[in-house]
Design a protein that fits this description.
520 residues, alpha/beta, 6-stranded parallel sheet
């Protein structure tokens, strides 16, 4: 039996025995030893094998499964540019501390720098992620400690062996349990807890347990997961006078705050900032705070903080929000309000995730996912397809450019029950709300209108779709059960109109809250 086949058998058997059950592969020649072996394992129903023709989408698909399952998922490609196409998803996995196992097939080391076809230096190609450059067997178990990992596997000719053996005989699967680091003490007086969108990798239950002991008002970038969170804070905290009035002695931040400039400015006002995030040990080692903790404390001594002023501000803001008419914000609120329990929601970067934080009322029962490690718009559809493998029903909210950026994922479309809402404002709506909105040639440089009929684009991939352009049409769609993959194009007002509406509602909320809490 060829050495390449033996090496593939050894590595894959080890992964199967530690509980890796999902393998995502893109076809190639140099990774043939892996593909053939995985085909044999899939035939025996020992693993789930997913074949994706595009390496970039394959990696994001694997990332989605990894995020939803909290288990390592292997994504495997051939050598050369195929490996480079894994880079975006690998960066997202690094900064979100996701369990993505990247396996790149390679030619033998002796062929590097010789002009050999499809050969480049794949060692440390993913920068901060450690590469294990393998030509012989290695014990993989000690390497799977959480976070992304790269195995670069050198396969020499012959790649395929005609000799057969039952390499899976007697395989014993003992899944590894990956637990978050919890422990330590925290002694503070009064304050506010702010939960970043990715929760620093902690589960909702773990964060809730900590929040109960802390007994402070809670601000969450993801209000869908925390019903006790103060609603609409990212709107009224943009007012510096309100923010100063509400500033506590202490603020504890779990994870990273990535969305609201108002929230980030509010954090800078406090006397004592505590950050809780395991990534400060390596990925974000230059992060600053008065106290930085790499684990969630279990022994907590604090004083209960009065939340009445926060609740009053939230109630006043909610009353102003009730008046909003058909818009991206109303669409997002309407979707999130009726999502069924025990389902998943994926939220795209840019405007949708900001609108959920600002306008949605806190609730629970839905598991929320997003690619907030680096907040990119690439690979979102592929990530959704991966997440959907772990749920009976999955919904997603994406902007139109985010959707188009990964449109090729529809070639290998999922068979799961998925409904993707695409907010179509014909371009990059987020930029209309940022300082560059007044730039010369704005549309050419930032707005980038696509001028496409998205329903026809989707139909070209054989995917069912529909278009809605008002609240009644959206509600009618939401009342129907999700069956297979479907795309709902939500036509909303123009980007400039949306930017103007956001400015007006923020000003109305600010004015009303100021009056309501006696600041004017």
């Amino acid at each position: 039996m060829s050495n390449s086949t033996k090496l593939a058998h050894s590595l894959l058997r080890q992964l199967i025995e530690v509980g890796v059950s999902d393998f995502v592969v893109s076809p190639g020649s140099r990774n043939a030893p892996f593909l053939i072996a995985l085909g044999e394992a899939a035939k025996k129903q020992i693993i789930d094998l997913h074949v994706k023709i595009d390496e970039r989408g394959a990696a994001f698909f694997a990332l989605g499964i990894a995020k939803a399952s909290n288990n390592y998922v292997a994504v495997i490609c051939t050598s050369g540019t195929a490996a480079a196409n894994f880079h975006p998803a690998t960066l997202e996995a690094l900064h979100s501390n996701a369990k993505l196992l990247v396996i790149t097939a390679d030619r033998p080391a002796r062929l590097r720098k010789t002009g050999a076809n499809q050969t480049t230096n794949q060692v440390d190609i993913f920068s901060q992620i450690k590469t294990h450059d393998l030509s012989t067997e290695i014990n993989l178990r000690p390497l799977l400690i959480g976070g992304p990992l790269h195995l670069n596997v050198q396969f020499d000719e012959p790649l395929i062996s005609e000799e057969k053996n039952d390499w899976l005989a007697g395989v014993k699967i003992a899944p590894t349990k990956y637990l978050n680091k919890i422990g330590g003490k925290l002694d503070l007086t009064t304050g506010v807890l702010i939960i970043g969108h990715d929760r620093a990798g902690y589960t909702v239950d773990e964060v809730n347990s900590f929040a109960e002991k802390l007994n402070w008002p809670v601000i969450s970038e993801d209000p869908i997961s925390f019903p006790q969170a103060i609603a609409h804070t990212s709107l009224f905290l943009t007012d510096s006078k309100i923010a100063n009035e509400l500033t506590p002695d202490n603020i504890v931040v779990i994870g990273r705050t990535t969305l609201s400039r108002g929230t980030n400015a509010f954090i800078n006002l406090c006397n004592n900032l505590v950050v809780i995030d395991s990534r400060v040990a390596d990925i974000d080692s230059k992060r600053e705070a008065d106290l930085i903790l790499s684990s969630l404390p279990t022994e907590i001594t604090t004083q209960k903080s009065d939340s009445s002023l926060w609740q009053k501000a939230s109630t006043i803001a909610a009353a102003e929000i009730e008046s909003i008419t058909w818009s991206e914000q109303l669409a997002v609120v309407s979707i999130c309000k009726v999502l069924a329990n025990e389902t998943a929601l994926f939220v795209g970067s840019s405007r949708p995730i900001r609108d959920i934080e600002a306008f949605c009322k806190p609730r629970n029962g839905v598991q929320v996912f997003s690619n907030r490690g680096l907040s990119g718009i690439d690979g979102n559809i592929s990530t959704i397809f991966g997440i959907a493998k772990e749920f009976e029903n999955t919904s997603a909210i994406l902007g139109d450019l985010t959707f188009l950026h990964d449109i090729s994922a529809l070639v290998n479309r999922s068979g799961e029950n998925i409904r993707i809402f695409v907010l179509d404002n014909n371009g990059g709506g987020i930029f209309s709300t940022l300082p560059q909105a007044n730039a010369d040639n704005f549309d050419q440089l930032f707005g980038t209108p696509h001028n496409l009929d998205l329903e026809k684009v989707v139909a070209g991939f054989g995917v069912k779709s529909t278009t809605v352009s008002n609240l009644k049409g959206l509600q009618l769609n939401l009342s129907k059960p999700i069956s297979g993959l479907e795309v709902v194009i939500v036509k909303v007002p123009s980007r400039s109109t949306n930017a103007g509406n956001l400015k007006q509602i923020t000003q109305r909320v600010s004015r009303a809250v100021r009056i309501g809490i006696n600041l004017d």
